[in-house]
Amino acid sequence: MTYRFFISLLFFLLAQTVSADSLTLATLRADLGSGSLQPVLARQTLVPVPDRVLARWVQDVDIEQFAITGFNENRKRFAARIRLHFSDGGVGFLRLEGEPGARYRLTEWYDYSSGLQLSELVSYGDRFQAGRGKAFLTMLQDNPGSAELADLAAGQPALLALWLVQCTGQPCEEQALAAQAETGKPALWQLKHALMASDQNAYREISGQLHLALGDDPYLWWLEGQLALSHQRCDWAHSPLRQAWQRYPENRSLADVALQCHLVMSQQGTAFLDKLSEELGADALAMAIHRYYQQQDAAIPAIYRPWTQPGEK
What we know:
Layout: H1 2-20, H2 23-32, H3 38-41, H4 55-58, E1 63-73, E2 78-86, E3 91-99, E4 105-111, H5 118-124, H6 131-142, H7 148-153, H8 157-167, H9 173-179, H10 188-196, H11 200-214, H12 218-230, H13 234-247, H14 252-264, H15 271-280, H16 282-296
Antiparallel strand pairs: 1-2, 2-3, 3-4
């Protein structure tokens, strides 16, 4: 058993070395370093969807930072897990698969925000060029808030995901979100569904699936915190957020959302504030608490006032 363990460890270390020198990985980093998804998606030629349909997702999204959080490769295939930080402050996650090399070829992608998947677009195929498929694309481009889109999509995951992509951050987002159908694959929109439906069990299940797929990523926890705040569900998220921050104490974004959820909740004590003060500094914590209550146009509760004095606590 010990022998097998060391052999497995050796192969793992060798795989890490190969990955570090991978031409695929180097090219992928260069493509993402352009600040756009366009160079990455240009490496596939299978999707018959016009560029204008994917424009909001591909061309109009500026990547400020990225992290390749997982990468595997052999002679025939590669897979990469990527976190994207957009210039508008948003964060997204992708899974890419394809044929490796300096001129790698993309054969699959999955967008964990919308559930958009390359293979589903490919399977829809020529139907985009005529009939309901063509009518859907035309309506999506001209009037993404139209109620007709739900009928034209007819429950097709590829079309519904395109609709959600087109409406992200737009007035039609809630309408597109409500039309989404379960696919068995985890996506961030499912967390929103569960929050809107006040279904805590579904929320816990989807959260677990996302963390299984994406790993214990601090920015996934940050996104969950943002959703919990916007849907007034910090009672579901405050404890996991505090625990996540303690695993990633250097992550200021996670610290901020964990603090906000802590302040939303009543009777949670002050031990967490002590930990934040030790890690962030008393001055930074005091500013964050003042900023939160100013945004809420509310008075700072007496129990938290000792932590609002710079240089104390």
